[in-house]
TrEMBL record:
InterPro entries: AMP-binding_CS, AMP-dep_synth/lig_dom, ANL_N_sf. Keywords: ATP-binding, Ligase, Nucleotide-binding. This is Long-chain fatty acid--CoA ligase. GO terms for molecular function: ATP binding; long-chain fatty acid-CoA ligase activity. SUPFAM superfamilies: Acetyl-CoA synthetase-like. Residues 13-415 form the AMP-dependent synthetase/ligase domain. Coiled coil: none annotated. GO terms for cellular component: membrane.
Length: 574
């Protein structure tokens, strides 16, 4: 059968590679599994209930939930009757829920648990036409349980079959409200074809996964990166295991032993930090061997020329050290795809040296999301690059270096926002807002166009480039480079645990002086006008909970600058 609409993916799996463990959820008492046949039955039953409730073609239905099989069931049930899925972050505020549900005119909301249910109910309390709200929680019964919507498919089969036939590839399938680093979120309208075009590109461009292999899914399904990947892996008969307890993610990865998972750079940085912490806990010769292996890995160039001596050392390091790192990730990892932000080139070298193949991806919600991907082939994995442009996608550069994208994956536009749509869609070309370049066929992102700033001396500064360089300093957990209209660039730095332990016996000013010394070696790699002249240490982490990171772990620069304005001024008052 052909896959032309999103719901076709599930039926394709049923026909081509039905699984006994198509989707699995980690519960307190172990794993709960859904077979492909189970999923189809539940999807059809829920679609019947949605029809009975009165959901019409192109009506909006929201899902505010952590990753779970029920999320996928609801998504397909909405999709196959021509509805539009509006995915919401499970940790969004009531204010965000209120805005999105009102703006999208959502008719019904699926909530992941009782806590999310309460937040959504708070959000809709003063709405003129509030949506119905149900939850996946087994602790809730009655008409607030999603099971209250389930009806006999046989009674609605003819209507559902008709709706499937009426649902066209170019029709809107979802509205994804971008988390954004400033202002109200914009609703990105994506059609069935937009997303499936990206899946087709992955299938043509990427070494295909094998039916029966396993994926651990922990990035939010409400984000297009994980969602498009889920359709792709389901299409190829991959077992998907959902995990939401990130504190114990490593344990579950070792339990499932997956071949694949998607992640973001911040999580890979944490993996590396845990490895280093484990190395620091060693003593004697074991500790020396560990950090010898780390130093060796830092020099690794994937597919680059290696001397005989280096190759021999690498094999020895693999036997003694790297093999243990792979076991810590389950022992079966083929590829890890990292997206949503830039990954330090140093970490790419280290993981590849250890045969933990991290493939960097680049994209954005407006492109469904994939634009480029590193490939496990000679010459196509270069630290600092995000791979080659995937098949079916075209890239060109504006005069100022901004990346423009064209392809079937490019969005329909922003929902109810023609002004913003006109700013980014120019004919068939999408303005990404990112600045980059092609080098030997590989795409390199140099910065966000909106984040580049000018000093009072008229010099343009690309902060991401400097931040990614400085992150290689041993003491830095997080860093934000600033200096718009100022005499020189400076930085706010969140130190890591190792730095704080080492310098626990000195005051804050002395810690800042020590940090400044640590970054001088990296300052030497920058032009004079780019060098970080002053820094201030921040004594709290930037995270989603305190509103300083987006759900995809990108810095909310304006909020950070506002929060630490007094600290920033102290760097320029001296």
């Amino acid at each position: 059968m052909e896959i032309n609409r999103l719901f076709d993916v599930l039926f394709y799996q049923l026909e081509q590679s039905p699984l006994e463990r198509a989707l699995s959820d980690r519960k307190p008492n172990g794993w709960v599994h859904y077979s492909t046949a189970d999923l189809v039955k539940s999807v059809n039953s829920l679609s019947a209930g949605l029809l009975n409730y009165g959901i019409q073609k192109q009506d909006r239905v929201a899902i505010a939930s952590y990753n779970c099989s029920e999320w996928v069931i609801a998504d397909n049930a909405i999709s196959q009757i021509g509805g539009v899925n509006v995915p919401l972050y499970p940790n969004a505020s009531a204010d965000d829920y209120r805005y999105i549900l009102d703006h999208s005119e959502t008719k019904l909301v699926f909530c992941g648990d009782r806590e999310i249910l309460a937040r959504v109910e708070e959000a809709i309390a003063d709405m003129t036409y509030p949506p119905r709200v149900v939850t996946f929680s087994e602790e809730v019964s009655g008409d607030k349980s999603w099971k209250s919507l389930m009806l006999d498919y046989d009674d609605y089969e003819s209507v559902i079959v008709k709706r499937r036939a009426q649902t066209l590839p170019m029709e809107m399938a979802t509205i994804i409200y971008t988390s954004g680093t400033t202002g109200r979120p914009k609703g990105v309208m994506l059609s069935h074809r937009n997303i499936l075009a990206n899946c087709d590109s992955l299938t043509r461009s990427y070494i295909l996964p094998q039916a029966g292999e396993r994926l651990v899914s922990f990035l939010p399904l409400c984000h297009i990166f994980e969602r498009t990947s889920t359709y792709h892996y389901m299409r190829h008969g991959i077992e998907i295991y959902f995990v939401n307890d990130l504190d114990n993610l490593g344990d579950y990865i070792r339990e499932v032993k997956p071949q694949y998972f998607n992640t973001v750079p911040r999580m890979l940085e944490k993996v590396y930090e845990k490895l280093i912490a484990a190395g620091n806990a060693l003593t004697g010769i074991k500790k020396k061997l560990f950090f010898w292996a780390v130093g060796l890995a830092e020099k690794h160039e994937p597919y680059g020329k290696q001397s005989l001596s280096y190759s021999i050392q690498l094999k020895l390091a693999d036997k003694l050290i790297y093999s243990k790192w792979r076991i810590a990730l389950g022992g079966n990892i083929k590829y890890i795809i990292s997206g949503a932000a830039a990954l330090q080139p140093r970490l790419v070298r280290i993981f590849w040296a250890a045969k933990i193949y991290v493939m960097e991806a680049y994209g954005l919600t407006e492109a469904s999301p994939g634009i480029s991907l590193s490939y496990p082939e000679k010459g196509l994995v270069v630290p600092g690059c995000v791979g080659r442009v995937i098949d079916g996608v075209e890239v060109k550069f504006d005069e100022d270096g901004e990346i423009l994208v064209r392809g079937e994956n490019v969005m329909m536009g922003y929902y109810k926002n023609p002004e913003e749509t006109a700013k980014v869609l120019h004919g068939e070309w999408l303005r990404t807002g990112d600045v980059g370049e092609l080098t030997n066929g590989l795409l390199r992102i140099t910065d966000r166009k909106k984040e580049i700033f000018k000093t009072s001396g008229g010099k343009y500064i690309a902060p991401q480039k400097i931040e990614n360089l400085m992150k290689a300093a041993s003491g830095i957990e997080q860093i934000l480079v600033l200096g718009e209209g100022r005499k020189f660039p400076s930085a706010l730095i969140v130190p890591n645990e190792a730095f704080l332990k080492t310098h626990a016996d000195i005051d804050l000013q002395s810690q800042e002086e020590a940090m400044q010394r640590d970054i001088e070696v990296f300052n030497d790699r920058l032009a004079q006008y780019e060098k970080i002249k002053k820094i201030r240490i921040v004594q709290e982490n930037w995270d989603v909970e305190n509103g300083l990171l987006t759900p995809t772990m990108k810095m909310k620069r304006k909020k950070i600058l506002s929060r630490y304005n007094e600290l920033i001024e102290s760097m320029y008052d001296e």
